[in-house]
Amino acid sequence: MIKDIHKELESEYDRFIEFGGLLDRKMRRYLIQYLQNKFDPNRHLIPELHDKYYNYFRRALDDIFIIDGLQDIVDQNAAIKKRVILDTIYWLKKAYKKIREKHPYEDEEQRLEGWSVTPMHVFLKRWTVLPSYLNGIYRRDELDSNFFKDKFEELIISQDIKEISAEHIKQLNLLFDDILANWDALLYAKVLEYQMNKFSEESEAYIDFITHKVNEYNKLKDIIEPFSSYFGWDMSRKLWKKSSFDVLDKYRSLLEDEDSVRQLADLLGSMREAEIEMEEETFEKTIIKQEWVSDELLKSEIVGVHTSDDLSQMLSAEASLLSMPDTESLFLKKFADKKLMTFKYEDKRLVKSEDHVMEVNQRIKQKEKGPFIVCVDTSESMMGMPEKIAKVMTLGILKMSMNQNRKAFLINFSSGVQTLDLYNIAESIEEIASFLQMSFNGGTNANLALRTAMHQLETKSYEDADILMVSDFIVHKLGDDIQNLIRHNQLNKNTQFHALGIGRQFDKSILNYFDTNWHYVPEEKGIIRALSEGLQDIGNRM
Question: What secondary structure letter does DSSP report for 20?
Fold first, then answer.
């Protein structure tokens, strides 16, 4: 992909240099080199140029690439780099064409052009008009029309060129060229100032446009980041790498509903913490150890001698000191200092200890678990917290399916159905956004959702799937055909049908058709913990 983008950009650079319609070819080449240096500093050595248009365009490029955050984005994302470069080149051409096409001095330009091609014999007949016209639009300190008028009056003695000497005609030509040159310089300065003011307006508008894009892009990325983090997706390398600014147009509603999406992300974050606790509890293991340790208090075996004041274990040689008055005082001193030679005994006893460790137990799978088909109720009765619980549960099931390499298929239903292959959601933020933007309105048609799910069972990818319905189950009675299809798949395909009821009011008779049922009340305490436990239970059963 990177090579293709580089090749496309090089082709666009060459096209702009050859046919850009901006300044001249040399200046266009320098502008492209200056632009390339923004991404690869010192790639080109660009000389100092004094062309005013070129310098204005160069400063505009500087202003664009100092937009906060833009350089970081283009350095990390080749698709956005390409988009910014192409948009900038297009904007340069468009802005230049716009400022050159029309300005308020066009009438004056036409007059100057007309006077510049006026032959001398015609000029002699209408010359008085020129200083009078210039005197009306320029101050004397800008262009001294009276000076030229006086000089013309001295030299023009007749309207007939034949009656004026050759020397005077020569001086008239010099004066005429001089006044036109002064006029042209003043007019060019006015036109340039007007064009540069308009270009500044165009530049500010384009910078505002890019700034808005950068802010929106970072905002959208920040919104989706918690969901990618929950699944362990690398936003910088995979999920976000190929997404350009064009992605913003698709997900404008996510930005508009930012608070709701962030609440969902917070809920998902809490669930993740609960899942981590569950994992820690699941893999905690206690190891009990037993070992023999020496205990000097137990006396069963003599292992040597040592010094002490224990008279019962005293050696006979020490007792002999008491037999003579001269040595009795020595015995008493050794006893007081605990220096009597005594027998040393030792024995061992059995000691138990416990160690708590975290361990992952691995075993050979007997049979791969099948895929999921998840039917999520998106009717109006699910709006609010039930909606968030339904989305969080579905995202949790998606994460589980990814970790276990299981396919998952989403059917969100109200009065109609929409489907989404969740197995590929990790590769595309488009799929994430589509899921987050699931609408919750309209009535409930569980029959259509279950019919769509069982149609999916007929495909090769999902023939071994189990079905989970997430709903408040405020629905009408299931049709006879749907009841028969459920029984058929339960009996003949061993398909498991599971129900996750959200809320307090639901039709219990419908739940009789499902193999297992879970019931959550969003207002109850510990709902996140309960959801995590239920999610683990769902994973084990499906």
Answer: -
